[in-house]
Amino acid sequence: MVRPGGRSLGFFDADVRWRGIRGLRWMQALPEVVDISRYSVSPSILVLHLGGNDLCSVRFGELVPLIQSDLERFSSFFSRFVLVWSEIIPRAIWEGARDGAGIERSRRLLNTKVSRFVRERGGVVVRHRELEGDNRGLLLPDGVHLTDIGMDIFLSGLQDGIERAMSLLVGGRRDMEVCMSSSVAVVQKGVRTYMPSNEAGISGAPLIKFLFVKS
Fold it and tell me: What is the pTM of this model?
């Protein structure tokens, strides 16, 4: 599952910007996107991976409409772009949950509803099939964050999603400018993983919340 490419996921001629925030919740997503729209060039591809931290604290009936409403609003901040929705992956431990099985059912249903919403609007969905089911062997002891191998599988899924998004752009162009901030690549025993950078003031297990690829 190891793919070459390091921090740019193999898109060497693209400008890839990572925005990783530990503990990010959906209510923070829109302000982050607004902030990026003010200080960054509009991305051609916007990849989002978040929402899992909200499943135990926000009512399902409120969370799904909130996500869908915000996704609709993103187009008002950027010019033509393709949205890539990275589905929420399972956890062995849902911190704060009274009913872990119930949260897992909510996770699957949320993925189904949001993924359908994204596809209907011309976006791309990353399913992470290899991380579904009993994935405890791919999680760290905390039952939440991915191991190096799990992270490599996750990033391979993102790479596939970006490739599909590129095919929706003009000719699937690969001649995109790439630059990365807020994360650095770490290579250990042939397995690629990503850690938040010290420059961003973030520490801890690998996580990715925002990925931008701009033409």
Answer: 0.77
